[in-house]
Amino acid sequence: MAEQNYFEEQKLKDTKHLRELTAELPRFMGEFFRSLSQSTSVKTCIGYAYDLKLFFQFILQNHEAFAEKTMKSLTTMDLRLIESEDIDRFIEFVTYYQKPNPQNPSILVTYKNDEKGKVRKLSAIRSMYRYFLKRKKVIANPASIVDAPKIHDKAIVRLEVNEMCDLLDEVESGENLTKHQKKYHNHTQKRDLAIVTLLMGTGMRVSECVGINISDIDFSINGIKITRKGGNQVVLYFGDEVHDAICDYIQERKKNPADTEDALFLSMQGKRINVRSVQNLVKKYSQLSVKLKNISPHKLRSTYGTNLYCETGDIYLVADVLGHSDVNTTRRHYAQIEDDRRKTAAKIIKLRKE
Fold this sequence. Notes:
Elements: H1 3-22, H2 29-36, H3 42-62, H4 76-79, H5 84-93, E1 96-100, E2 108-112, H6 115-134, H7 161-173, H8 179-202, H9 206-210, E3 217-218, E4 223-227, E5 233-237, H10 240-253, H11 275-289, H12 297-312, H13 315-322, H14 327-333, H15 335-348
Antiparallel strand pairs: 1-2, 3-4, 4-5
Helix pairs in contact: 1-3, 3-6, 7-8, 7-11, 8-10, 8-12, 12-13, 13-14
């Protein structure tokens, strides 16, 4: 399966999922999502659909004007009955709430939202009202006067040099795995080491990693073609450690004459590995070697970005390699590092000789 076909297949799955979600929403929401899809990725639309479904469920259960209403009977005229205070209450509600488990309704599942989660939900509501206000189907946007939660900057969680070594050693040796895990490790060791080394050595997203094909790699230039979030393709370059880890893994696969898959990383079933599996294997090894930090593939990406910025001081280079469309996104992520560099500069300059 060609790489582009893989990403096209994922997009088709997401599109089908979005249609299933919007079918559960009020009928008038169809036109909103058709308009939204012209400028927004399918995954973002899916996030909006979940958020707006939760919003309407909250309104139906907590607004007295909708006591006799159902999700499907809501109209744009009903949107006019919703006030900013209702939206405020919804944003407070999503801080912590419980819903029945879809597979087992007798079990309640707890959900939590931090500031970012609340901001995304408010953004979805604002966007919906803005669309229908533009089309004169509502007379105001009550969400526009709701204060967005303040997002507090979080320190970048990244691996120190010794922690990077410990993680790679653990993946390579499997020393601290359970007996049951070691049985699988005998079969997946080279694959797992290649995955972690590649993520740590290039800063690519986990979604980009799972979409790679063997035919996308050119070892003569140590380059690898990946597909970014927006669908555009770029070539990332890697060092000798990544080169060796991937070569070892590919050589092992060649021992199996039945292995004809072009996908680079395969599951135990011989199919292209998925994002969740990569997230789980990174978590498994990191919990054994870096116990005080919650490490995910995204944290390995942050580690690479941090190391690259500390070595070069070039924020534009970091933004380009990480695939940030806006350099300000990169600046926000690495603002603390810049602050640390300025503090270091202050310590270097001495006004009086000792």
